[in-house]
Amino acid sequence: MTKSMGRHSFHSSGETIRKEDPLAKVNYNYEKRQREIAKKKKKEEKQKEKLNKKTVKPQEKPVQPEEK
To answer: CB–CB of 7/23 below 8 Å?
Structure first.
């Protein structure tokens, strides 16, 4: 005879058998960490672009061909 209680089943002999979960649990901490890493990377890239814009001197007015 088997009784079911949550994730475990108990046989009449007192032995416990663990059932497998039908679906894997979502690891929210992992997903959150991945989002944080992506944000940090994006922020660093923006910072580098900003520094590059400051260090590169703006070019003079582009030379436009004379109209005929």
So the answer is: no
pLDDT category at 29 given cuts 50, 70, 90 is: very high
Q: How confident is the model at residue 61 (pLDDT cuts 50, 70, 90)?
A: low
**What is this structure's pTM?**
0.45
Pairwise CA distance, residues 8 & 15, whole Å = 10
Which residues are paired to 16 by β-bridges?
10
Could you give the CA distance from residue 17 to residue 38 in angstroms, rounded to a whole number? 42
Q: Rounded CA gap, 36 and 29, in Å?
A: 10
Distances, alpha carbon 14 to alpha carbons 4, 35, 47, in Å = 12, 46, 63
